[in-house]
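General statements about sequence and structure are easier to judge against a single worked case. No coordinates are needed to read the tokens, only the vocabulary itself. The sequence in question and its structure tokens are set out directly beneath this paragraph.
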Amino acid sequence: MNAITEFQKANPNTAAIITSPHSAAVVIALISCLALSPIPEPPTIEVLFGYQLLNFALLSVLILKSASPAVLIEYWLLPNFTYIAACVVFAVIGRLVFSSLCRFPGPKVAAASKYWMAKELGNGTFSTTVKKLHKKYNAPVVRTGPNELSVNDAEAIVKIYGGKYQRGPFYEGAKLRGCASIQATRNQDDHVIWRRIW
């Protein structure tokens, strides 16, 4: 304990940085990203629910202790911004450097965020853009998202689609007015019945 006190007296600026709520937010963000890293891209809703629950608990404690608005801003609002910014930075670094999909070619912006894919899908240019990417990189497999690959190899079709694997959440976007088509359904039983009819 004496060593900590001596360090604080000798290095007041460094001690203030280390003990600030922003440093705590960055450390908590790093720990939460490392804890979630074995899980490939946890659902955003689950992450936000846990985050909001902890946030509500902290805010409740501060309000019950009759914290001033300045304290709420310094110890609740600003550290929240720091935490979210740190999580975004850690997630992007993880997707660009440490992901198992890093070995596949593709646009870095697509690997960093699903925004690229959403923009291409919204513009109606996704299919042609992906075709151009396969040509540009001269590769049968290109990365089109943080956890998405496009495979342009006829021999791979049976290997990829031959098993009974549930389709990913990407197909949720293809539902028309809430109804899934044979191509967009993620329910294997429905797909088998519809495929026979088709």
